[in-house]
Write a structure and sequence with these properties.
Strands 1-2-3-4-5-10-11-14-15-16-17-20 form a 12-stranded antiparallel β-barrel. It has helices at about 1-15, 190-195, and strands at about 25-35, 50-65, 70-85, 95-110, 115-125, 130, 140, 145, 150, 155-165, 175-185, 200-205, 210-215, 215-230, 235-250, 255-270, 270-280, 290, 310-315, 320-330. The two termini are about 25 Å apart. The chain is about 5% helix and about 55% strand. Strand 10 (about 155-165) and strand 11 (about 175-185) form a beta hairpin. It is mostly beta strands.
Amino acid sequence: MRFLILTLALLVSLGTASAQDTTWTYTGGIGLDLGGLGIINPRVGSGNGRFGIGGLGSFSANRKAENSFWNNQVTLQLSLQRLGRTSTTQPDGFQKNLDVLRLASTYGYKIGGEKWFASADLLAQTQLLKTYKSNYLTAQTIDGNADVLLSKMLSPALIQFSPGITYKPNSHLTFQYSPVAVRFIYVADDSLARLDIHGNDVTRDANGTITEVKNSFLGLGSELVGRYENKYFKDRFSTTSTLRLFSNYLENPGAIDVLFTNNFSIQIFKGLSLDLLGELFYDQDVKMNLDSNDNGIYGDGGDANLGIPADKQAPAAQLTGAFMLKYSVIF
C-alpha cells in the first residue's frame, strides 16, 4: 500500500501547479460478488455448504483543463471462497481466488490541434493479501507437507512509467505510444525473490542451481496503449477496454507483454449495474502455474509411480473473468 500512496503523492505534487481553473470529476464504484449455500445433514450424493465473497472496488479522480488532462484510477479486485469440509484432513478456512491492487495514472498536455498531447503514463500493481501454495489465507499442512508462501504485498510489485505521445481522434478512443518506457519489478521479501517466479533477476549455473538473486528487474522498451470507452442505448450499456503492449529492448524484444482489460456494464437503474469483467495478462518474465497433467489441479506434484507428470511453472497467458452487481457514485 505504501508504494501506491507515495506514487500517487508524487503525481499530485507534479500536477498541483497546473491544477488551478480546472474541473475535477470523482467517481467511486463497488461491485459485489456474493454467493452461499448452507446444508445441514446433507442427503447422500449431495455436496456440502459453500460461501464466496469478493468484488471490485474502484476510485477515479480525473481532471480536465483547457490544454491538458489528468486521469487517475485505483482499483482492487479481490475474491475469496470457503467450502464445506469433506474430510478431517481438509483445511478449514477461506481460499483466495483473485487479488489485484492497481493504480493507473495518465497525464497529457496539448501540443498540436485538439488531438495530440505530450503525455506520461504510470501503472503500479501489487496485491493486498498473502498467497500460499494451498491458496488458503493462512499456512496449511496438507498430506504432511508444510505450506509455502508464494507472494504478498510488494512481493512482487510492478511499476511502469511511459512518457510519450497521445493521440485522441475522438472522445471515445485514445492511443498512446512511448519509445522509452521503463518497467520495474520489485520483490521486497528475499525468500520470495529466490523462488524465481515473479520476474526478478535470478542467475543459475549450468546445472540449474541458483547462484545469484536480485530483488528487482529493470526493463527498458516501448509501450503502446489503446483505450476505448463508449455508451449505447441511451447510456444503459457501456464498455471500457484498455490494451497495453510492451516490448523490452534489453531482452527478447520479440516477446510482447500484454495487459488487456475489459468492462461491460448494463445499467439496471441509476447507480446500480450488472458488470462483466474480463482480463488477459502475459509477461515473459513472470511464471504461471500450468496444469501439465490435465487433471484440473494447478500446482499438483504428480505421481512418478503412476507416470503422472508434475505441473510446471512457466510464462503463460492468464485469463480472468467475473460478473457482479456494481454500485457507482459520482461526487
